[in-house]
Amino acid sequence: MGTQPIIEISGLSVGFRTRNGAIHEILKSVDLHVNPGEAVGLVGESGSGKSTVALAAMGYLRSGLQQVAGQVRFKGQDVFAMSRAALEDMRGGELALIPQNAGQALTPTMRVGPQLAEALRLHRGLEARQAQDMAAQLVEQVRLPDPDAILRRYPHEMSGGQQQRVGIAMALAGRPKALLLDEPVTGLDVTTQIHVLDLLRDLALSEGMAMLMVSHDLGVIAHCCSRVAVMRSGEKLVDEATASVLRTPRHPYARALLDATPRLTPVSAARVAAASAPRAEDTRPEMLRISDLGLSYAKPRFWRAGTPPPLTVEGIDAVLHKGATLGLVGESGSGKSTILKALAGLIAPVKGQVTLAGGAPLPPALHQRSQDQLRRIQMIFQNPDQALNPRMSAADILGQPLRLYFGKTGQAARDAAAALLDQVRLPAGYLDRLPGQLSGGEKQRLAIARAFASDPDIVLCDEITSALDVSVQATVLDLLADLKREKQTTYVFVAHDLAVVQELADQVMVLKNGRICEAGPVDAVYGAPQHPYTRALFDAVLEPDPPGDTGADPVAR
Amino acid sequence: MSVTELSGAQQPSPVRRAMQVLRDVARQPSGAVGLVLVGLHLALALLSPLIVPFDPMTMSANEILAPPSAVHWLGTDALGRDVLSRVLEGGRQAILVCGLATPLAMLWGGLLGVYLGLRGGWVDEVAMRLVDAVLSLPGILPLMIVVVMLGGGAPVLIVTLAVLFGIPVVRVVRAAAQNVVSRDFVTAARLRGHSQGAIIWRELLPNVFDVLMVEGAMRLSWMLLSFSALSFLGYGTPPPTPDWGQDVAEARVYMSLAPLGVLGPMIALSSLIIGVNLTADALAKSLGLDRMQRAVV
Predict the structure, then answer these.
(1) What confidence tens digit (pLDDT) does each residue in B98-154 have?
(2) How far apart are the CA of A1 and the nearest CA of chain B, in angstroms?
């Protein structure tokens, strides 16, 4: 590797000026280089500065930020000293960015073909006709099926994975020497993820491109990058070969990050057998029975009252006993969140019914349910920022269910709220805080406390860890497990992360297109998946240290 | 990080928060100018009867259309009344009527807007088409019809202005409320089974309040303009009482002889409206709403 690095960041400090005139640094003397043909991963939790580093490599700083010290060189040239025209030439040309959400980065009003052709005319100086042919070649290169049809589509007519591929084709239009990837697969399903990553790896190999990949997901980095830099609060802590960081992490933070990453634990044959064997009747009382549930988003049409609407979800059966946890897994669009909404009462089932604790079937619509039925089913949401009223203090937020269900007000409510905070391990001093004064993990704890304020029998969890950093994820999952032990709560847990489900659930239901693929005890399904789709789902999981990988340079694999 | 910095912070009381916003507004150049202008006009509206040099309604046959002098700083009008005195007192009626009509418009427009944002469905659809229909009329037309039918007394004007100017508030607040309704904390409240009133009061209103305040300030300036237009057309304040719009109408006949009779009230009215607009702008900025797309009404 005696060649000159293509991206060379040396001693870069970036900061913003605070109100009192001092400079607050968000990058502290960061060194990083990427050699031609090399793939470097940049990991860290939110706020660690990893995206700022990647954008600085393009000579771009978000507004308000300024370069305090150091340099960024692209092919030996100082990017912050470049003229505007030279920068524009470089960006999208020799140095291309693939953003997290390519769907939003594409122009929604233009068909894909002309968009690609425009980039080709701009960066390669091609004639209109040549650009069109070239666009078709690019689409083929990113392995999109039926290139002619794809070129005629608008961005919204494609799936997220297809959009991401078009985004990559767009980046390739300028024949880049280096690619910057900002969380390139975060929004994609696991099975799509792996295809996109393989594609990037192959392209890097065949075109000799350098890649700088920003991700919070160690599995993604392990799959693609030969070297990884770990960042925390603006500082680069580690910069080593991927294999050594992920297998024998020396830095304590790297180890902590790795330990917190949820991963699939292998299930021994004995446990599979034990789980698969017919068991004695569950003696715990039955809490929830779902029978032949069918759901539809189609609005009933009165002039076609006879014909049943097409079902988004069909034939869902499950029985949950007190203290059990059912995990729903599947790709986006598989219907897992739809089922959760139906249990909550947000969607009225078209078919089948839901029974609570052996009683009469639950009324389908929310307003038909009794207050007690509503109280017994509570929901925790994916994004804690959206789930808490920003104008209410923690005490008020917890006070809502306390007053509604138990008539607690004033000091009684405050004491109960403090006790709830204590249960989710937040200090009582947080009672007067607004959600904006809490961190992401703390907000989610508060949301959990609110769900438990109703003293529910069943708690519905909708992707509750996916918006959180890995280290926070782990503590939230621990908290849920503890609460379950204390209160014998029954959970229905939706997650796309199979490892998270394995950690918490004892039953699992694998969904595809709104139908059950496979269901059963977690050990049985995880240890010996029967359905080919389930197997494909497990194969697509990216692990930070995949078994069988010798730790050789993954790019050369 | 940011959490530890804020750890000492407590939830501010509404009054403290209002003071804080006011300080933020005053700190911006536009807000400072706006507040001074509005404050000046408010003070005049309250105190002008005590400080005017002459009775603004006393006519004098000897001093018709007199030029500015040491006695009459802005001269006199066609009936020999002191122009300065009429300008100083001419905003009282407008400020009283609009100052009472604006909170009324905000109240009903805000509540209905939030309700429609939460209710959705066909009720919302029908209501919004009605709003569209009313907004497609030039605003002064329904105003004139009502005043011709019921007379131009202050109570009639206050109610009419509040009704008419509440309609755009409905639309803006509904849009803001829809944005809040789609967030999960509202879903959580619905799942718990709170009543619609409770959801509106606790979950929605506090989150659209900023939008409502800025919209109210904007409506106030439009209302002042409409009120003056009405007076200019002769449907507003009845004649002897000084009023900017009406005075401009009367003085415009003699504009070449006594331009100050037109300029005086016009400058007074514009400075008030500019003051309100500047304050609204600064308010939007300090509440962080300036970057939000404001509905064009």
Answers:
(1) 999 999 999 999 999 999 999 888 999 999 999 999 888 887 888 888 888 887 788
(2) 39
Integer Cα distance of B71 and B88 in angstroms: 16
Rounded to whole angstroms, how far apart are CA atoms A235 and A221?
Answer: 19
Sorted by sequence, the CB contacts under 8 Å of residue A389 that are 6+ apart come out as: A396, A397, A435, B185, B202, B203, B206, B207
Q: Given the structure tokens 């959990």, which residue do they identify?
A: A448
| Cβ contact, residue pair A378, B194, below 8 Å | no
Could you tell me how many CB contacts below 8 A there are between chain A and chain B?
71
Task: List A23's β-bridge partners, or say none.
Answer: A17
Residue A548 above 70 pLDDT? no
Task: Answer yes or no: do B185 and A389 touch at CB < 8 A.
Answer: yes
**Contact indicator for A510, A479 with CB cutoff of 8 Å:** no
Instruction: Provide the token pair at A88.
Output: 């524009």
Of A233, A438, A454, the CB nearest to B192: A454
Contact B191 A345 (CB under 8 A): yes
**Three-point CA angle A351, A356, A362, nearest 5°:** 45
Contact B208, B118 (CB under 8 A): no
E strand or H helix at B76, and its extent? none
Question: How far apart are alpha carbons A86 and B7 in whole angstroms?
Answer: 46
Nearest CA in chain B to A382: B184
Contact B194 A400 (CB under 8 A): yes
User: Given a cut of 50, is residue B270 above it in pLDDT?
Assistant: yes
Query: How far apart are the C-alpha atoms of A346 and A29, rounded to whole Å?
Result: 51
Helices and strands, number each (H, E), in chain A: 22, 19
A322-349: pLDDT as tens digits: 989 999 998 877 888 889 999 998 888 8
Mutate to test the interface with A, among B1, B3, B185 (most CBs of A within 10 A): B185
Could you tell me what percent of chain B has a pLDDT over 70? 92
pLDDT digit string, tens, across residues A81-114:
888 888 888 887 888 888 877 777 888 888 888 8
- The residues facing A316 across adjacent strands are A293
- Phi and psi, residue A27, nearest 5°: -125, 130
DSSP state string for B144-164:
HHHHHHH---HHHHHHHHHHH
Provide DSSP, A306-331.
TSPPPPSEEEEEEEEETT-EEEEE--
Tokens 């999109």, residue located: A144
Is A439 near chain B, with CB under 8 Å?
Answer: yes
Query: Whole-angstrom Cα distance, residue B73 to residue A556?
Result: 91
A387 vs B9, B184, B207: nearest CB = B184
How many other C-beta atoms are found inside a 10 Å radius of the C-beta of residue A10?
A: 15
Helices B154-181, B205-232: axis angle to 10 degrees equals: 150
Number of residues assigned to chain B: 297
Q: Is the dihedral of CA A393, A394, A395, A401 positive or negative?
A: positive
Enumerate residues 6+ apart whose C-beta is below 8 A from B66.
B72, B75, B76, B80
Cα–Cα separations (whole angstroms), residue A197 to A176, A186, A188, A194, B60: 18, 11, 11, 5, 91
What is the DSSP code string of A34-71?
E-TT-EEEEE--TTSSHHHHHHHHTT---TTEEEEEEE
Q: Among B3, B202, B207, whose Cβ lies nearest the Cβ of A438? A: B3
